[in-house]
Amino acid sequence: MSAPTSSPTGSPAGSPVGSPAGTPVNSRSRVLVASLIGTTIEFYDFYIYATAAVLVFPKLFFPSSDPTTALLSSFAVFGAAMVARPIGAVVFGHLGDRLGRKGTLVTSLLTMGIATFLIGVLPTYAQAGWVATALLVLMRLAQGFALGGEWSGAALVATENAPSGKRALFGTFPQLGAPLGFIIGNGLFLLMGALLPSAAGADPSQPSEAFLSWGWRVPFLFSAVMVAIGLWVRMRLVESPVFAKTREAGLVRKLPLVAVVRTHGRQLVLGTFFMLATYVLFYLMTTFSLSYGRTARDAAVPGLGYSYTTFVLMMIFGVVFFAVFTLVSGPLADRYGRRTTLAWVTAAIAVFGLVWVPLIGLGTLGVVLWLVLGFTLMGMTFGPMGALLPELFPTSMRYTGSGISYNVSSILGAAVAPFIAVALWEAGDGSPWLVGVYLSAMAVLTLVALLVGKETKDVRLEEGESAATPAADEAPVTVAP
Question: Which residues does the UniProt record annotate as the domain Major facilitator superfamily (MFS) profile (predicted)?
Answer without folding.
Answer: 31-457
